[in-house]
Amino acid sequence: MTSIIQSSRKQNPSYQTYNVLLKWMEKDREASMDKLQQELSDFGMDMLAEKVGSIKTRSGNKWQAGTSAGPPAKRSAAGQSSLDGHQKEQLTQLQLLEENRTLRALLEELQGKTPRRRGPGARPVVLLLNDEYGTAKGGISTIHCQMASLLGSKGAEVYSTVLSATEDDKKDAAADEVHLIFPTTSDRDKREPCLDWLTFDHATRYPSLPAVDFIVGHVPITSHAARQIKEQRFPGAKLVEVTHVMPEDTSHYKSDGKVLSIGDEQKNILEDLKHADVIISVGPYLHDYYRRETRDFDPHYEFLPKLSDIFSNARVKYVDASVKVVLSIGRVKGVERLKGYDLVAKSMRDVFVALPNTKWRARGIAKEDFQASRDIIQAKTGDIHFTPLEYGTQKELCEDMETASVVLMPSRAEPFGLVGLEAIAAGVPVLVSHKSGLAMFLKTDPDFDRPIVEIGDDDDEAAKTLSKRIIDILKNGSREFQAAQRLKERLLASEYWAASHTKFLESFGLKG
C-alpha cells in the first residue's frame, strides 16, 4: 500500500486518488478500509483519510443493519453466525465490492473526475485562492479575508490556500470558520514559497484539495491559478474571478517595463475572465471598467467591502496641540508616482514651513526598503524627515489613525482605495484622490464627497493643491474632526455594503 501511494504522488492529481484505489483493489483485495485510511493519513492526505473514515462508518452501519452478525471481517470464525462458510465468503466479497464501489465513486468525486452531488440545502464548499490569510498588507488580502469570513458566517464550508501563516493568521481563520490549506514542503528544499506553486505546481504542492463547488481567484495574483485548478482538477466547480487591478491605469506610473507589458497583462486578465462563471469587481470603477472590457458579461457584480469593526469602533478624539501628525499609508519603492508619494513629499515642504511642529509618518515601508524609500523622497524635497513604519495589523493601523491629524491617499491612479475608506470609518480627516475608485463611490452621495481632493496632471500644481488642503485641515482641526465624525456616522448608517454582499452571497447559493 505504501508504494502505491508513493507512486501515485507523481501522477496528475485529477486521477491520483482514483489510481490509489484501483491499485489497492488489484493488489490487496482484502485489505481493510482501516488500512487504507491509515496509509492516506500517513502520507499527509488527511482530507481523503477523513472521507474514507466516513465511508467506513456508513458501510459498517449498513452491513450491521443487513445481518445480525455484522461485517464478516469483524466476526470470529465460530458461534456468531448461522451462515455456512460459503455464505460467509459470499457476504465478505459483497461487502468488499460495495465498499470499493462506494469508495471509488467518492475518490473520483474528491479529485473532480465526476461532478459533486449536492442535495437540496447542502452547504456550498468554496475554495478561495490567496498567498496569505491576513490583513497587514491591506488590499487584496483584506478583501480575501472578508469574503471568506462572510461565506463562512452564512453557512458555506470555506477553504483558503496560503503559502504560510502566522499563529495570529491561524487564529483569525479559525474564528472566521475558514480552513487553511498549506503547501507540501521538504526540509531539504530551501526555495521560498511563491505564487507559482499555486498556479503551476498545485498538483504537487496542494495534492489533497477538497472537492469543491466554487473556486475563487483574485485578479491578477491567483486568477490563473483558479482557472488552472478548475480545468485540471474540478471541472464541475464554478469559477469566480474577483477583479482588483487595472493595468491600463496603474502601470503608467511604474517602470518602463511595466508600461510595455500592459498589453500582455490585459490580455492575460481577460483570458482568465473569459473562463469565469461569475465576475465580481471591487468598487464602482473596476465594475464599470470590466463591464465594458468583457462586453457586459453576466453575471458580473460589484462588491463594496464592509469596514472592520476595528475601524468603525475607533474612538478618535481631537486634541488641540501645536504638534500635528500627517499619516500616509503604503509602500514607496517602485510605486512612488502611482501612490503619489512624490506629491506628498513636495507638499510637506510647505506644510513644515507653515506648521513647523508637524510630523510625517509613513506606514508600509519595509526595513529593507527604507534607504531606497528615503532616497526617493529626499530627491524631491531635500533633507526632509519622515518616520517610517513597517506594515502592521489592522489594529496597529487603526492606532496610527487615532493619533493622526489627517490621513492621505493622493494616488494618481487607484482602482479602489480601501485604506481611505478605513480612515473615514475611523472618523479621522482624510484626503482622497479624485482619481480613485473610492472617490467615484463617495460621489454617489453628496454627504460623502468632502474628503475628495483634485490631483491634476501638473505635478507642481497638484502638490500646491494638496498642501493647501493639508494646512487647512491642520489649522482648523476641531472643525475638521467634527466633520469627519459626521461623515463616519452617515457612512455607517447608510449600510452601503449591504446590497452588494447580498448579491455576492447569492452567487454561491446563499441568502444574504
UniProtKB/TrEMBL annotation:
Query: Example GO molecular function term?
Result: cysteine-type endopeptidase activity
Q: Which GO terms describe its cellular component?
A: cytoplasm
Q: Name one Pfam family in it.
A: GT4-conflict
Query: What GO terms describe the biological role, i.e. biological process, of this protein?
Result: apoptotic process; positive regulation of neuron apoptotic process; proteolysis; signal transduction
Death domain boundaries: 1-56
Which residue ranges are recorded for the region named Disordered?
58-89
Top-level taxon: Eukaryota
Q: Where is the composition biased (Polar residues)?
A: 58-67
* PANTHER family linked to this entry: CASPASE, CASPASE-8-LIKE
Q: How is this protein named in the record?
A: Uncharacterized protein LOC118405883
